[in-house]
Amino acid sequence: MPKSLPQLKIVNRLHILRAERRITQEQLAKEIGVTRATIVAIEGSNYNPSLELTFRIARYFQVNINVIFSIEEETNEEA
């Protein structure tokens, strides 16, 4: 039986970066050209942004993408 691949989960630090810079979700949304709902969804891990949007966010904060987004493996252990 082939070994199943682990599930990958994208996690982010967007809310932390916003807090450090004291900007609201609405302010960030306007700066990068999306709606506040998009920022809410990204921060809540309910939406994975496109590669283009990921770069826009990183450029706005002037950091590498890996500072904001990272990947965690979720293992599905079978009994």
- The CATH architecture would be Orthogonal Bundle
Regarding quaternary structure, what we see is single chain
Distance between the termini: 15 Å
User: Class, according to the CATH hierarchy?
Assistant: Mainly Alpha
Integer average pLDDT: 91
Structure description:
It is a single chain. With 79 residues, the chain is α+β, with helices and mostly antiparallel strands. Strands 1-2 form a two-stranded antiparallel ribbon.
Tags for this entry?
434 Repressor (Amino-terminal Domain); 5 helices; 49% helix; two-stranded antiparallel sheet; alpha+beta; 15% strand; single chain; 79 residues
Summarize the entry for a quick read.
49% of the residues lie in helices and 15% in strands. It has 79 residues and is α+β, with helices and mostly antiparallel strands.
Secondary structure layout plus pairing:
Blueprint: E1 7-12, H1 14-21, H2 25-32, H3 36-43, H4 51-61, H5 65-68, E2 69-74
Antiparallel strand pairs: 1-2
Helix pairs in contact: 2-3
